[in-house]
Design the sequence.
């Protein structure tokens, strides 16, 4: 918990070899956040290009109203590790995550801060590069495509409707910070953070931001390898980082949904449907625990007893949809009871 002398806002800035951008970054920070109730926490993630010396000079400037902390990691450990370190050393009621490379505008960060502090019901705002009517410069098709695909998969896995999970500009209330336990050390931190916020039942608001993409020659760090790793992290945070009841439910529902798939197609087509329904079952198991999932399975089983051929397939579908409806009703009834882990 923050102490009585805590700041209102902590701005956490991970830095790795950003010497070309730091001067302008602090011009912007001074313009929008030069306030005694703000602390700037720069985590130097093992920079080797002179960023460390420049940061020291910027701190010596000493004409800021905000407090200025520099935390040095001797070995480059990844953006995720830098953010975790910054958050652990923050005191603010709100924590703003801001990249150092000027792809995202500090003016937008200021607007997000004003928005979250004037509406106490909002605990979390993510910047989005895809919903804004603001100025954008982006000529990297692959990165853009992967970002949108990842957001789509995240939404399917967590029943959300986010447009930009990977945007580096985010602001969180301290109540959110106290609930999450980040563990991913590289660019997968964005997925880790979003998944934990959702798991702890906080609503994520989105705010359109400007975006000025920089090239690899300008120091862009993220690569296609990080894009592929992000798919792994999506699987990890959704299907492995769960409670025991949820993991059991995922296994259980995957098996009975494979049974549903067995009623579709023939030969290789039948194998394809079994696989697809197995995947759907794993997603279903996230939202319905053992008992509510059993209700769905019983409806499916009863449906499989009716008709022959296509008639059986139709009956299975009808009873499956009916089972979903009934299971959802039971889930709501028991959501706040001691049996919630089973429904």
Sequence:
């Amino acid at each position: 918990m923050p102490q009585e002398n805590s700041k209102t806002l902590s701005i956490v800035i991970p830095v790795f070899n950003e010497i070309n951008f730091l001067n302008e970054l602090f011009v912007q920070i001074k313009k929008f956040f030069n306030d005694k109730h703000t602390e700037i926490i720069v985590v130097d993630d093992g920079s080797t290009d002179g960023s460390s010396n420049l940061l020291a000079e910027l701190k010596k400037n000493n004409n800021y109203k905000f407090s200025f902390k520099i935390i040095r990691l001797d070995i480059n450990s990844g953006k995720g590790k830098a953010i975790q370190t910054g958050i652990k050393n923050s005191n603010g009621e709100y924590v703003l995550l801001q990249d150092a490379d000027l792809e995202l505008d500090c003016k937008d960060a200021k607007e997000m801060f004003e928005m979250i502090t004037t509406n106490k019901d909002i605990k979390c705002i993510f910047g989005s590069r895809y919903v804004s009517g603001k100025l954008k410069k982006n000529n990297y098709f692959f990165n853009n495509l992967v970002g949108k695909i990842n957001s789509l998969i995240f939404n399917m896995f967590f029943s959300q409707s986010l447009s930009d999970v990977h945007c580096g500009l985010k602001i969180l209330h301290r109540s959110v910070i106290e609930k999450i336990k980040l563990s991913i050390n590289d660019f997968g931190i964005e997925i880790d953070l979003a998944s934990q916020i959702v798991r702890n039942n906080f609503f994520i608001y989105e705010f359109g931001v400007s975006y000025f993409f920089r090239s690899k020659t300008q120091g862009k760090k993220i690569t296609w390898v990080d894009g592929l790793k992000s798919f792994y992290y999506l699987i990890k945070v959704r299907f492995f980082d769960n409670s025991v009841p949820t993991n059991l439910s995922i296994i259980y529902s995957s098996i009975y949904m494979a049974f549903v798939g067995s009623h579709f197609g023939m030969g290789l087509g039948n194998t394809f449907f079994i696989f697809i329904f197995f995947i759907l079952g794993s997603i279903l198991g996230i939202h319905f625990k053992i008992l509510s999932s059993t209700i769905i399975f019983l409806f499916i089983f009863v449906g499989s007893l009716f008709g022959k051929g296509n008639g059986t397939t139709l009956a299975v579908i009808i009873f499956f949809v009916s089972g979903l409806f009934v299971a959802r009703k039971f889930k709501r009834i028991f959501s706040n009871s001691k049996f919630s882990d089973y429904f």
